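Internal QA ticket QA-208
Title: Verify multi-chain structure generation after dependency bump
Assignee: T.L.

Test input:
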Amino acid sequence: MQVEKTDEPVKVRADFSEGGGISPILLKRGARVYKVERVNGRWEDREGLYRIFCFSLTVDSGDVFQVAFRPGEACWKLTCVAFPG
Amino acid sequence: MRPQGPWAERRSARGMVLHADIDAFFASVEQLLHPRLAGRPVVVGAGVVASCSYEARRRGLHAGMPIREARELCPGAVVLAGDRHVYASFAAKVFSALESFAPGLETHLDEAYFSLDGLGIPQGGLEAFGRSVRAEVARRSGLSVTVGIGPGKMAAKIAGKTVKPGGVRAVDRDGLFEMMTAMPVEVIPGVGRVTRRILADFNVRTVGALRAIGRDSLRAVFGARGPRLFDLCRGLDEAACESGGIPACISRETSFHVPASDPAEIEGMLFYLCERAAAEARRLSLSASVVSVKIRYSDLRGDEKRAALRGPTQRDDVVFETALSLLHALHRRRAGLRLVGAALSGLAGDRGTDQLDFFSGGTASRRDSLYRALDEIRGRHGHKAVVAGRSLALLGILEQDGHGFVLRTPCLTK
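Actual output:
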């Protein structure tokens, strides 16, 4: 398995539930749209006071993407890509 | 009226302790986040193995083994550098699940204890309770824990060791005594390499054999530790669960990406580590009386020195001044350094500010204010918001993220 760290802005469509839960559904990287097949894990990180919500997602290509959502800036970033190899 | 629900059977669990240990912690988190790794040998670490999955352990890999050796033993292993912030977040999830059963958790990196005093024994007995703890942790974190329950911390830990990974076992005092008899002496807390070697000289290798030695003889060989060994090998452990207690030490260490020989880089790293350790002491409202520095050369030979500080302190500059003189005393060879570390010990509750120096002209209190201001800025904007002092030398050498410099092996265990 190859793991590549990155810091790339991506577009994510997600469900925001009332309890504060976030569930990514679709991810757009460049021109390609990936369907999220499974949320493998979710965790929280911090940068000072700011919370960052992180997710490990298996997408329909079979790759695993790690994405981070910064509520303060309302932006998503792709932080890591893992693919067979 | 008899209590209802799971706690209806009110036999006392007084003196019983539950120990939960996250199975192959770092490797399990990686397997959770990368489902393709499930069932495969996974190694986390840089330079040496920090954690490895049970699949890797079955091939002879273990923590502390050089990665090169691990690759030779298990060429199919997936080696990952790991991310301590992710692991810390998952540990917090596990501890939060455990806290839903009882407050006053004693937490370590990948394990926790809590006392069952006052909880009573639930219907179904202690092992059923352990299984419900295990299930709740898995539900909230996705991770597997091994649960041991016994009369004391040592008993609970040993009970869990016999059913790793993912098992649940409860023992009473008699069961513990019997279970420990054939176990090697290393299962006793505090028995490390040196004690094991001394005992081996007396042909004592198992707990059962250790029981044949009298209390006075153990005191003669091991001093004040002797009587404790005498009790522990009989399963008598009075250590209480400590939540939020004063840690024995606060340490920060890392290896270098390539062996470092530039004094500016080495001293910059030492400054950064001292700064992080002192900031942690301030966060915990503790002051340190002793600082120690550890180095390891590129040929893996290493050394460590400690020195008392002028007085209890939590100031970066005071800690660094002593640490730097220790580094100069230690780093005598011309070989590059592979690792450097700093640790604060002799920790006690903070009295507010350091003892004022009559001749300092108020420098001490200005420094105190400066460090508290830096803590506040970094607490709000992340550690990289201010790079101070000699750690400026690390700019351009190391990358930074929201937590500060990205170290090669940022002491995953600290």
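Spot checks passed. Residues 287 and 314 of chain B are 5 Å apart (CA to CA).
Status: verified.
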